[in-house]
Amino acid sequence: MRFFRRRSLPLCVMVLLPLTVLVPLLTASAQDFKKQVIYQVITDRFNNGDTSNDNPPQSSGLFDSTKTNWQLYWGGDLAGVQAKLNYLKGMGISAIWISPPVDDLNVNIPDGTGNPTAAYHGYAARDFTRIEEHFGDVNNTWTAFDNLVSAAHADGIKVVVDFAPNHTNDNSAGEFGALYDAGTFVASCTNDPNGIFHHNSNISDFNDRYQLQYYTLFSLCDLNQENATVDAYLKSALQQFQQHGVDGFRIDAAKHVAWGWEYSMANSAFTYGPSFLFGEWFQGNTSDPLYHDSYKFANHSGISLLDFPLNTAIRDVFANNNNFSEIDSTINAENANFTWQNDLVTFVDNHDMPRLLSVNNNTNRLNEAMAFVLTSRGIPVIYYGDEQALHNDTNGGGDPYNRLWMSSYSTSTTAYNLIDKLATLRESSNDALAYGGWQQRWINSDVYIYERKFFNDVVLVAINKNDNTGYAISGLDTALPAGSYADDLGGLMGGLAITVSSGTGGNNPIVNFTLPPHTVSVWQYTSATSSPEVGSIGPTVAQPGVPVTVAGKGFGSIMGSVLVGTTAATIKSWSDSSVTFTVPSVTNGVYNIMVQNSGGIASNGIQFTALTAKLIPVTFTVNNAVATNPGDNIFLTGNTVELGDWGSTWNTAIGPMLDPNNPNWFLNVSAPAGQTIQFKFIKIAADGTVTWEGGNNHTYTVPTSGTGFVNVNWQN
Question: What separation in angstroms does the CA of 567 have from each of 45, 341, 537, 586, 682?
Answer without folding.
Answer: 51, 27, 17, 8, 34
